[in-house]
Amino acid sequence: MAFLPKYLVRLVLLVLSQVVELIEKKKAFAITTHVKPDGDGLGSSLGLCWLLKSLGKSADVIVRGEVPPAYHKLPGVDLIRDVEHLNGSYDAVFLIECSDLERPGIRGLNEAFTVNIDHHSTGDQFGTINWIDPTASAVGEMIYNLCKAIGGRITKEIADCVYMALVTDTGSFHYSNTTDRTLKVASELIKAGAKPEEISGAVYNNYPWSRIELMRRVLDTVKRDETGKIAYLRQTLAMRQESDAIDGDNNGFVNIPLSARDVEAVIYMREIGPDSYRVSLRSKGDLNVAKIAERFGGGGHRNAAGLQIDGDWDAKEAELVDVLLQEIERRLREDRGAE
Ligand SMILES: [Mn+2]
Rounded to two decimals, what is the model's pTM? Predict the structure, then answer.
């Protein structure tokens, strides 16, 4: 969890009170999230929608593109509208987890009163109101806080949606963003009717068979460097085709080698064109892969980062292994120096 100095905690609370005031004073709202929406984006959008409706407000959820099957059972998913342009007169538009005004892929947002709700502090302050809380594990946790602050009731619908946000953004409560607060909120959601087995099952036991086909092919490429600390694996365009894979089928592949005891970092390279690759980096503990991704023009978090790279596959893979090894050795030297 990100540590916030006291004055920033007060600032976050101050902005929350502005959001509460806005909702109390106005009537018609729209909610959107980023394209290729994930569990937090959709769960928080729908959770907020149910909260607003329970307060007697009107709320439309507008999201570009298709909703992935994992989220088809979320209450209210059938109400989501796929629009290219903001139409209708809204008092305010909530943008959930969007780094800038372009992220939802919807035109006309620049003319609206916008509320930027995010738990990443790296985005633009593009909103009329910017409610950014980096101590929250997911925006879902913030929606829960909003519900409490406004005196709303956690209905079964809100509980289902917000639980989905928490479980996906914390990797089933595995990641370092899982706090005592997260688990307290999860507990309240279960009390309000959320069923953990059903919600997790919709995400983790609901993949098309093409994922298994693709996994078989990708895992067949996995190797380790000679120290055994770095694992790397590849996905070619041909593998995608042979597996009949769809977007999202490879979610989480990068974490599989990381589950081996001695592996400290994983490099997962996906071919996206001739001599062009998208790369996911994962690490355990203090090993900071965001720093490494940034060197190649990418970015991310300490334990999960990404970048794009062009060139000869073997050469680029070897370069990334090398850079990670150097980082591991540098940290070992530092640790020894500190003793
Ligand atoms: Mn999130």
Answer: 0.88
